[in-house]
Every structure is written in structure tokens, then in C-alpha cells.
Amino acid sequence: MKLKTVSKWLVVVGAINWGLVGLLNINLVTLLLGSWPWLVTVVYLLVGLCGVWGAYAMLTNKNKK
Q1: CB neighbours (10 Å) of residue 57?
Q2: 43 neighbors 29 (Cβ within 8 angstroms)
Q3: 0.85 cut: is pTM over it?
Q4: Domain segments of the chain: what residues?
Q5: DSSP code per residue over the chain
Q6: Cα–chain-centroid distance for residue 15?
Q7: CA distance between the termini of the chain
Q8: pLDDT tens-digit profile of 2-36?
């Protein structure tokens, strides 16, 4: 699997998680991985890094024709 694809999916996971936190006060990442707090931290770190990478890519992407 390509790094770009994994990055996009992690951003989607982060967006869904924040939507659930805002709407229903349910943290899906903690709910699924709560017994491994270090893994929850790793997931949040990866989602954040992928978000920064995605923002950088969008801001520096030149229009390709």
C-alpha cells in the first residue's frame, strides 16, 4: 500500500473521530484501542502528521494540466 493512500485514510479516520466526538461525545480511537494507551498516542500522532503533510501538499500543489 502506498504511503499517500495510508495518509489519506488516516486523515479520514481523524475526521470521523472528531465528528463523533463533537456529535455524540464518542472517541472511536480510544474506544477501539483504549486498552493500549501507547497505541492511541501513536494513532493520534500519525493522524496529525498526515494532516500536516496533506495541508502542505495542498498549499504547494501547482495546478497540473
Answers
A1: 11
A2: yes
A3: no
A4: 3-60
A5: --HHHHHHHHHHHHHHHHHHHHHH---HHHHHHTT-HHHHHHHHHHHHHHHHHHHHHHHHPPPP-
A6: 7
A7: 26
A8: 888 889 999 999 999 999 999 999 999 999 998 99
Cα angle for residues 63, 52, 64 (degrees, 5° grid): 10
Place of cell 492511541: 40
Q: Report CA torsion sign: 39, 42, 48, 52.
A: negative
Q: How is residue 8 written as a grid cell?
A: 489519506
Cα separations in angstroms, 42 against 3, 17, 55: 16, 15, 20
Residue with cell 501538499: 57
CA–CA dist 32, 62 (Å, integer): 38
Q: What is the radius of gyration, based on Cα positions, of the chain?
A: 14
